[in-house]
Amino acid sequence: PGTINSVEWWLTYQAREVIACSRFMAREVVHSFELPSSKVHLVPNGIDTHRWQLPPGAAEARREPLVVAWGRIQYEKGFQVLARAVSELRQRVPGIRCVIAGRGSYLPELQTQIDMEGVSDIVQLAGFVADEQLHEMLQRASCVVIPSLYEPFGIVALEGMAAGAPTIAARTGGLAEIIEGTDAGMLFEPGNHHELAECIADVLADPAAADLMRANAATLLRKTYTWDAVATETVQVYRTALSY
70, 156 in Cβ contact below 8 A? Predict the structure, then answer.
């Protein structure tokens, strides 16, 4: 890590301009590498929205109380918080199920947490899933949850939105920036399984609100997170760098 940090410090020092993917990361870069804030430009990550779009009618066909989450299975990704939230909901939401897809070093501890919560029958650790499997799950999902305790950006939130799934995310780092003030998703305090449970329950109980969330998310993606939008912002930074 020390070698990596020293190389990054040298690169940011030599660069005319620096790009950060979120305001959270911009603050980290300015603080860690002692840069003037004017040198750091915000250009978010983008996604291929067409890759995640569901077949026509798939969103309308969603009826299962299925919660989907995916990513690296590490402590800071917060999947243990989701397990506790589902445990809280099992008596309130008949038939609720949760699938967590991904691999990582925290997998044994997460399975232990699921067993301790008594939800091993309704929370499935699916391991690695191919894109086709993930898309099939998202066609049936009532919502996507990103329960990260720490997240510099949060590409999974964009992927969930592009798939037309109401997205619930922890209010942390870049995740909060994507959703805050957009009505394109719901936020909860990181680590707060009670608040997460309420968000999930609200989405499942109000299909009209979920549909509005999907529509707002689609608009947000088109305006800000397509690769065309990201490329346009990046070109502006390059023009600034070349104008010296």
Answer: yes
